[in-house]
# Entry
Amino acid sequence: MATSGAVTWAQPMQVLRRTLVPS
# Structure
């Protein structure tokens, strides 16, 4: 459960971080 939640959250979080911080 924790792993699935983390993966599901990591996907959109990484996209948002890249959009917010286009390094």
In short: The chain has a mean pLDDT of 80. Residues 1 and 7 are 10 Å apart (CA to CA). Residues 2-20 form the longest helix (19 residues). Helices lie at 2-20.
